[in-house]
Design brief:
With 316 residues, the chain is α/β, with parallel strands linked by helices. It has 2 domains: 2-88 and 284-302, NAD(P)-binding Rossmann-like Domain (Rossmann fold); 89-276, Rossmann fold. The chain is built from 9 helices and 12 strands. It has helices spanning 11-21, 69-72, 89-107, 110-118, 142-151, 180-185, 206-209, 237-246, 286-302, and strands spanning 2-7, 26-29, 39-45, 60-63, 83-85, 134-138, 157-162, 172-175, 189-192, 225-228, 251-254, 274-276. The strands form 2 sheets. It has a 7-stranded parallel sheet. A 5-stranded parallel sheet has the order 2-1-3-4-5, covered by helices on one side. Strand 1, helix 1 and strand 2 (26-29) form a beta-alpha-beta unit. Helix 1 crosses helix 9 and helix 3 (89-107) packs across helix 5. The chain starts with a strand and ends in a 14-residue tail after the last helix. It binds NADPH dihydro-nicotinamide-adenine-dinucleotide phosphate (NDP) and oxalic acid. NADPH dihydro-nicotinamide-adenine-dinucleotide phosphate binds at residues 66-67, 87, 95, 139-144, 161-164, 166, 193-197, 199-200, 229-231, 255-256, 279, 281-282, 316.
């Protein structure tokens, strides 16, 4: 039985880490797959189109990404083969750092201080205390909950929104379309960690931004803030630009975009209160990927339950 690495980037790194952990494993790297029948496990990130459907012995697919939207959109994905997505403290910790960094950055009005510094202006700007800022987490899964636990000690007023009810200690929790308005209307900083599915595509629109922070806005924050580290397909880039221009959004930190890499002509690159990062909020580190993929493969071979199994009906 053979293990296939089919990844559009870092395939050699992943293979080297896997080989170091299990030197006896018959390891193949796409496109050099050898006899297709031999392959029972595949580690994938943007695999060549249609490849997985040509592997008759495939028993397990491990996604390098925590998000599996690209795989879900592939009509040739063999849906009868279990698909597990990457969940690991290494990635989770990185994402929690990213969200905390950008919540603090905007709460402390850093983009305005950067502008003042560029003009050598020593100026005071009033800032709210953390307990006066309402941070809304869209998505209360592995990453949303980790972000909440990192933000909590600062004293932020936390709220969260998920598809199904997820009551969490010390947070006002909302779920489903019916409770979206109630969630948004008392959110000053919206941090998005949703998966991209048919239901969530384009959710971050001008209409949604207009519903943010309508009641009891935190003193001194000039307007609502958007942080999106989920997927670019969740947002409409042009709506973010328009909302910033209209003052419906004060600032944004964006790690993901409708088109990646973000085209040089995008006004988001140049907006003084937008932070652009290159989809690196939380990387899947090769050593952690290798350990995880082998653990999943061994568990599956023993017949143990798989962790982080993707539910095709939900799309994540
Ligand atoms: P999880 O599957 O653990 O959590 C997803 C959360 O989103 C759940 O709370 C889920 O609700 C909620 N959700 C899903 N659909 C809807 C909906 N229609 N309405 C409301 N809530 C919804 O995912 P993770 O936390 O592990 O990851 C989230 C996303 O982060 C990934 O899918 C990926 O796109 C992105 N990501 C980005 C990275 C980056 O570097 N930028 C790195 C890693 C991940 P419920 O709890 O009810 O199921
Ligand atoms: C992921 C990502 O989904 O890096 O893991 O975006």
């Amino acid at each position: 039985m053979a293990f296939l690495v089919a990844c559009s980037s870092r395939a050699d790194r992943f293979a080297a880490e896997i080989h170091a952990l299990d030197p006896g494993l018959d390891l193949r790297i796409a496109p050099h797959i050898g006899r297709a029948e031999d392959i029972d496990t595949a580690l994938v990130w943007q695999p060549p189109a249609g490849l997985l459907a040509t592997l008759p012995g495939l028993r397990l697919i491990v996604s390098v990404g925590a998000g599996v939207d690209a795989l879900m959109q592939d009509p040739t994905l063999p849906r009868e083969v279990p698909l597990v997505r990457f969940v690991d403290p290494d990635l989770t910790g990185r994402m929690a750092e990213y969200i905390a960094l950008h919540v603090l950055y905007h709460h402390r009005r850093m983009s305005e201080f950067r502008e003042l510094q560029a003009r050598a202006i020593w100026n005071y700007l009033p800032e709210p205390a953390a307990h006066e800022v309402r941070v809304g987490l869209m998505g209360l899964g592995v990453l949303g909950r980790a972000a909440a636990s990192v933000l909590k000690p600062f004293g932020y007023r936390l709220r969260g929104w998920s598809r199904t009810p997820r009551p969490l200690d010390g947070m006002a929790c909302f779920s489903g379309a019916a409770e979206l308005d109630a969630f948004l209307e008392e959110t000053d900083i919206l941090a998005v960690l949703l998966p991209l599915t048919p239901e969530t595509r384009g959710i971050l629109s001008r209409g949604l931004f207009a519903r943010l922070s309508r009641t009891g806005r935190s003193p001194f924050l000039p307007g609502p803030v958007l942080i999106n580290a989920g997927r670019g397909g969740l947002q409409i880039d042009a709506d973010i630009v328009a909302a910033l221009q209209a003052g419906e959004l004060y600032a944004a930190s964006l790690d993901v975009f409708e088109t990646e890499p973000l085209p040089p002509a995008s006004p988001l690159w140049r907006h003084p209160r937008v932070v652009v990062t290159p989809h690196n909020a939380a990387e899947s580190a090769p050593p952690a990927i290798a350990r995880y993929a082998l653990r999943q493969m061994q568990a599956h071979k023993r017949g143990d339950p798989l962790e982080n199994l993707v539910d095709h009906s939900r799309g994540y």
